[in-house]
Write a structure and sequence with these properties.
196 residues; mainly alpha; Tetracycline Repressor, domain 2
């Protein structure tokens, strides 16, 4: 059997990570098998263990990847020198949209993975990856207060992130009912009005 090049090995790993990040957000950590992930990546099941020791290891890597993708999306929402209100408004418009609600595989891991991560044993590596990802989101929201945000600025960041994640989670849970759109609109408006 011909040996796979280093470039192809790296590409296969990237495909596995991307597929798992999307599938875990869509179906949950326990709603996806290794076979599902490998098929979605266009690879055979047997190649999985050449890249990862376990599904638990992959879950942590996929979680890190998903949060990294969210950071990139957050940065693309407004110009680097935008103010706090412009950033929060753009974030709420993006985060609390029908598209984000209806396409969990492309959405935020803080929403898509929260319930599953909460059910995982504290020793599972995905717990640490999720915590670090959440802290990076909070750091960005608090960054407008300067390099050493006050306790009040940190509390505002926690409250805003909690509203975004909670609203997106609830709207997704009742998708199809008018309440879903009401939730998205109410929280977008509330976050905007909090600057007034």
């Amino acid at each position: 059997m011909p040996r796979v090049s280093r470039e192809q090995t790296d590409e296969n790993r990237r495909l596995i990570e991307a597929a798992s990040a999307r599938l875990f957000k869509e179906r949950g950590l326990n709603g996806v098998s290794v076979t599902d992930i490998m098929a979605s990546a266009g690879l055979t099941h047997g190649g999985f263990y050449g890249h990862f020791e376990s599904k638990d290891e992959l879950a942590a890597v996929a979680c890190e990847r998903a949060f990294g993708e969210s950071v990139v999306r957050w940065r693309s929402l407004v110009k680097e020198d935008a103010g706090e209100q412009a950033f929060v408004d753009a974030l709420a418009k993006h985060y609390l949209s029908a598209k984000q609600r209806d396409e969990p595989g492309g959405g935020c891991p803080a929403v898509g993975l929260a319930a599953d991560v909460a059910r995982e044993d504290a020793t599972k590596p995905v717990r640490g990856a999720y915590l670090q990802g959440l802290k990076s989101m909070l750091g960005r929201l608090a960054s407008f207060a300067g390099p050493r945000p006050s306790k009040r600025a940190r509390q505002r960041a926690i409250a805003r992130l909690s509203m975004l994640v909670g609203a997106a989670t609830l709207a997704r849970a009742v998708r199809g009912d008018p309440l879903s759109d009401e939730i998205l609109t109410a929280v977008r408006d509330y976050l905007h009005d909090s600057f007034q």
